[in-house]
Each structure stands twice: as structure tokens, then as C-alpha cells.
Write a structure and sequence with these properties.
Helices cover 45% and strands 11% of the residues. It is built from 13 helices and seven strands. The strands form two sheets. Strands 2-3-1-4-5 form a five-stranded parallel β-sheet. A two-stranded antiparallel ribbon has the order 6-7. The model has no long low-confidence stretch (mean pLDDT 96).
Amino acid sequence: MRKTIYLHIGYHKTATTFLQKNIFPNLKKVRHIKNKKIKNELYRLRVRKLNDEDILEIRNRFDELGKEEKPTLISYEGLSGSPFKQKKPKKHTSILKDLRRVFPEDQYDVKLIIGIREQVQMMTSLYIQYLHMGGYKQADDYLQKLEDHDVLDQYKYNEYLNFVEDIFGEDYYLFIYENLKKDPDGYLLKLLNYLGVKKIPEYDDYPANKSYGVLQARLARRLNYFFKTKQNPDGKFEPKKTKRFGLLWPRTFLQNKISYKIHYKRYTLPEEMQRQLQERYKEDNIKLSQRENVSLPNNYLY
């Protein structure tokens, strides 16, 4: 009998952290493996070129942490790609192929969960996250890096689903971020039903950190330039850890209530950049909307 594996593979910025912290650990019907226990295995899948020995080691680790009597659930947005990597990242399709090698069809019944978000909002959120992580470049420079690394086309969701179906078949769940925002409990319950769970578990609804606004983004670009981070390895100053304030670097002082009280206006990408992104994804989104059982919000159809 094949073991059931649920793989929640992202994308980034589609409520993955909310699900990983608040929902998945509280499920009784599945065995959720926390990412800290498989950090090395997830990193290798996301970044490395894997030989057969690597694949076997990763499979054995996942099997070791799973439970025979329950399906296993692994949730990690990095399995859909690496939009914050400094060098050209491993292709998302290569990660899919490696996941199939880890979980061969004759031994595992693999069911994917794929979260998507409208691409202009997705790129906006990714750019702000890049600033949160210590980046200092303008939005057009960040998106140009994604273009140079062949990452932008990885957000053509219909094309990606074609790859998914070629490798894993059609038994997957498409999780649309905007539909969750519109009907949190109803849409979340549909996802849980796919996992074999009949009701939403109790959870602590921790407030999400508010993202940078226009002022915070502008200051972050200037201040981040001086701090050494993964997004700016040539920075002059190492962020310092203190007992009172935690890590002393721009994010500590920009992403807080005082900063937002002084000034907050939602950050948006420049209009011309938005138009170019819409044009890039328009045709693919139309094809996505024509798929059976896909309830795509209107903001995807430009």
C-alpha cells in the first residue's frame, strides 16, 4: 500500500507562514513535519543538484519522521523556487522532478498543494520582503535580477500546473490567496477537507507583521546599503544583537507601530512596471481561468 504524502510547496507570499504556524501543527489527521527538523533536506531540495544517494538520504529522513498510520504533510514555500537568492537559483521544475525522485509513484501517493497570488501583488510583496531582508536596490533592479535569473516566468501559473500534471498527475489542490482573504474560514475549510480534515482546529491568531509602506521602503533602501546581510553581502556593518531591542538594524526601527504612526501609505510598484507585469502574465492567466474547477478572481484578468 502506498503512503500518502501531502506537499505544500508554496508559492511564497500566499499565507504559507500562517498555515505553517497556526494551522498545520494543530491537525490530528496528518503528521506535519516541522521545517526545523528537515531544514537540511529542504535546503538540498531547493538548492542542490542531487545524486541518487542524496535522494535516498532525503527519503529516509522524511520516512523516519513520518508515521505509518497517518499521511505525512510537508510545507515549505522554497519548493516552488528561490526569489531571494543572490545567484541563479535551481529551477522550480527541477525541484518538482527531484520531489518525484524522493517520492516515487510506486511507493507514494503524492498530493500537492500549490498557493498562488496575482502577479503584480506577488511581485510587490516579494520586493518588500527583499527590503525586509536587507536589500537596498530599487524595484526595477530587483525585478531585473529575477528576469536575469529566469525567475519571472516561474510565475506563469498555468505553465507551472502543466509541469505539475506531467510529473505528478492531476490530484493537486490549487490554493488561491485572494479567495482565502475573501472568505477565510470557508476557503480554509476546503483546503483542510482536501487533507482529510473535517473542521478548522483552534489556533492562536497572531497578528501578521505590517509590511513597509512608501516611507519605510524609501528609508530601508538607504539604510540597508550600510548593513551586511545576505541581500547585501558588501555592507559595512554587521547587525548587532541586543537584549533590549533584539537585532539592531533598519527593520527593527522601520517595521513597528511608531514608524507607521509617523507615516504610512501602502507601497505599490510604479504604474508602468505594473502594466508590464500584467502584459507578461495576461495570456497565461486567461488559460488558467479556463481550467475546470478554477475560481480565479477578476484581478488576474487584465
